[in-house]
Fold this protein.
Amino acid sequence: MRAWLVETLGDPKDALRLRDVPEPMPGPGTVRVRVEAAALNFFDILLCQGRYQERPPLPFTPGAEVAGTVEAVGPDVGDWPRAGDRVVARPQLPHGGLAEQVVVPASAVYPIPPTMPAEEAAAAFITYQTAYYALRERIGLRAGETVLVHAGAGGVGSAAIQLARAAGARVVATAGGPEKVAVARRMGAEEVVDYLAEDFGSRVQAWTGGRGVDVVVDPVGGDVFDRSRRIVAFGGRILVIGFASGRIPEIPANHVLLKNYAVVGVHWGLFERRDPEGVRRIHDRLTTLYQEGAIRPLIGARYPLEEVVEALEALYSRRTVGKVVVAP
């Protein structure tokens, strides 16, 4: 079978090579999945560069979320999954999902509905899990609250817009440029601000009648966080999901006290490790929302397996919206 291997650390074009490798065989507690779609994440690039918190030994295959069909089941798996089941799975390094087949622990495999395309299943897993965990589990978002979603055309942002709307909240989003503004609006944002053309703070204040927003979803950090804390409402919550801007902001405790707001961390990867049953519970809820038509993953670009390097370069340049998907 074919798999992408990081043979030396560096940018994806220098680090990755598509190789023929032996077909993997499932051992105890694992299953082999034929990959029908794999979704890319920014941390796949950091893995190639050796800049991620995990540094697997060389060579390794990146790729953290795949969807496909179970082909073979190892011993001690139990009653599920079985061969022929359609699943979404979380491959474990060093054997990631940018390959034609991958062996994963049975505990990291989740069922998908028969009507859900593999590319949508792969694209949905991490982003919708993160957004749901943030909005529903970390802060208990309530119907009627106002939510500001930054990077609304991105993977987590587009998921957060849909999930906030599904919870009965009102949503304002930010996005960079007319195309991304249109995408965020299509995802369900009531108001969208092009942050490249105008100040989002004044628009958000006008939209809320000067009250500020109840919730801020911030995967950007840096100046965006600094400006967001000025427009969060009394008793509001700021969800810190990431630092795409590259700068980790500092939080003045006196400002938190003066406005009675909360700054809430969202580290979904740690939640996944500490509460795997919680991840499975959220997956079941998300599956129901998908079948009800309340959510639909945003796939911004599709690439064949042979063009993984080009796909990662497009992701790195931030030319894409939603998720980038690779199909072997």
Remarks:
- The domain at 126-269 is CATH 3.40.50.720 (Rossmann fold).
